[in-house]
Amino acid sequence: MSTAMNFGSKSFQPRPPDKGSFPLDHFGECKSFKEKFMRCLRDNNFENASCRSASKEYLECRMERQLMAPEPLEKLGFRDLTGHSEAGTGV
Could you say which of 20, 43, 50, 62 is the most buried, measured as most Cβ atoms within 10 Å of its Cβ? Predict the structure, then answer.
C-alpha cells in the first residue's frame, strides 16, 4: 500500500488583477512623471490629495505608452481635474 503524499490535490488558481496586468516601465518612459509625483508626496508629508495633479500626469503617461490599460480619468477619480462636471450636480 502506498502512503505517498499528493501535493497536487489542492492547487492554487491564480487570478489576474481586476484591471489587468501593468507592465513595468523598463525603458523609463514615465520616470520623470513618477519622480515628480514621489517628490510631491515627500514634500507634502505623503498627503496624496496634495499631489493629485502629478498623479494624474503619471497615469496619463502610462496610458499613452500602453503601460496600463486606458481608462477614463473620471473613473480613476480625477473628474475635478478633467473639466467634466457630474450631470445635474453643478459640480
Answer: 62
